[in-house]
Amino acid sequence: MAKVKLLFGNDAQGEFNLDKPELTIGRSRDCDIQVDNLGVSRHHCSLVQDGDNWKIVDKGSNNGTFLGTERVDDQILKNGDRIVLGKFSLVFDAFGYAQEEGEKKQTGPGGMGSEMTMFVDPEAIKQMQQKMASESAPGAQPGTGTSTAPAPIKRMVLAVQQGPREVTCALVKEETTIGKGIEADLPVRGLLVRSLQAKVVRLDGGQFRLVNLGGWRKVSVNGRAVSDHMLQAGDVISIAGTPITFKKL
User: Fold this and answer.
1) Can you spell out the DSSP letters for the chain?
2) How far apart are CA 156 and CA 192, in angstroms?
3) Distance of alpha carbon 86 from alpha carbon 104, whole angstroms
4) Given the DSSP bridges, would you call strands 186-187 and 175-179 parallel, antiparallel or unpaired?
5) Distance between CA 227 and CA 180 in Å, rounded?
6) 69-107: b (≥16 Cβ within 10 Å) or e
7) Mean pLDDT (whole number) for 225-241
8) Full-model pTM
9) Tens-place pLDDT, residues 25-60
10) Beta pairing partners, 159
11) On the CB side of 7, how many CA atoms lie within 13 Å of its CA?
């Protein structure tokens, strides 16, 4: 049985067996593999069985499906191929089997049969990262998840409301970009928005600066247009009507 490994950058997020003829991938909760990221369309692509092979099929996604660096619509997969969806990727293993799959969620009420949806739960990933940080801290007691060291400092994020859910982009890089291009860390669409419209620069001392990268579309903070602004927790950045909150998480 084949499997895929879901990665964010180079960090593994879960493994999934290809155990039915088609597995859907996207941001929607009804996808077989849910990728909770604004750069991924609700129904982005599918892994489809084709005889003895598997292929990746794009479902009309906004930002495209890539095999390595090449954008594809319908492509047979080879062992080791990397399917790229924005900042996420899926590595295809033609001969693998996931002993522990990503967390499963029942799609209907109890008693409605055995149909299950595999998904990547952002809250579960966050809890796992916190546990790992706790156990690796000085004074930690192995296997207990407890530590005598102080709790980790909260990190700063950009938060965007997506319907009933809040989607966040952690500010862990020296520069985090905002725009409508696939290369942007935080996608924002709208009239006159550039591929890279703005960036948040991480400074020494835990400070962050917002820089407008130019063009006709203005960038505002708390209702005032800015070109260069030192951010404070709680600031609301607005680009093309999309509010983006700078806060601790």
Assistant:
1) --EEEEEETTEEEEEEE--SSEEEEESSTTSSEE---TTS-TT-EEEEEETTEEEEEE-S-SS-EEETTEEESEEE--TT-EEEETTEEEEEETT---SSPSPEEESS-TTS-S-EEE---HHHHHHHHHHHHHHHSTT-BTTTTB-SSPPPPPPEEEEEEETTEEEEEE--SSEEEEESSTT-SEE---TT--SS-EEEEE-GGG-EEEEE--SSS-EEETTEEESEEE--TT-EEEETTEEEEEEE-
2) 28
3) 23
4) parallel
5) 18
6) eeebeebebeeebbbbbbbbbbbbbbebebeeebeeeee
7) 95
8) 0.45
9) 998 888 999 887 877 888 999 999 999 899 999 998
10) 168, 245
11) 13
- The tokens describing 43, both together, are 């129904």
Which tokens is 220 given? 């505002």
